[in-house]
Design brief:
183 residues; 5% strand; 3 domains; mainly alpha; 3-stranded antiparallel β-sheet; single chain; Arc Repressor Mutant, subunit A
Amino acid sequence: MHDLNFREMTKEQLSEESFIDLAYGILDSKKQPLTFPELMKEIQTIKGCTDAEVKERLQQFYTDLNIEGRFIVLGENRWGLREWYAIEQIEEETAPTVKVRKKKAKAVVDDEDELELEEEELDFDENFDEFVEDPTEEDEEEEEFEDVAIDDIDEDLDEDLLEEEDEFEIDEEDDELEEEEEE
């Protein structure tokens, strides 16, 4: 990249210069970070653009600023030149940006979990036939149970009732004995 000294350029040269190169020149000459609106205002002043022209190119410029390797966002929409900062210092100053990356990584993990769930659902659908019972087998089992069990239960109940009746019957002899004792 050529050294950009926009103060020595003619209006014609400035009008041909890209927003991104002007941003680099502005930050390089100021030697301090600027917010995005401050940077835009400086570019607009240097280029002599109208508000409409700036608004028209705003989105593309912001995209270029993010993609361009020479620039770094320092948080709170402040922009600086990457060459100003050592790697450790960049990590400290851009800590909030790291949190955003973690959230994106979490989203990737969630997508992987979702894929695993979909695969499990497919396995379930494939193996579903193993768990479906044949309705004819069920009917046969019920019929066998009904025939055998009801007869057995009836007999058992009859026996139990007879035994209970026997327990509560009072012998006539016992009654006669009691009457005699009372007299």
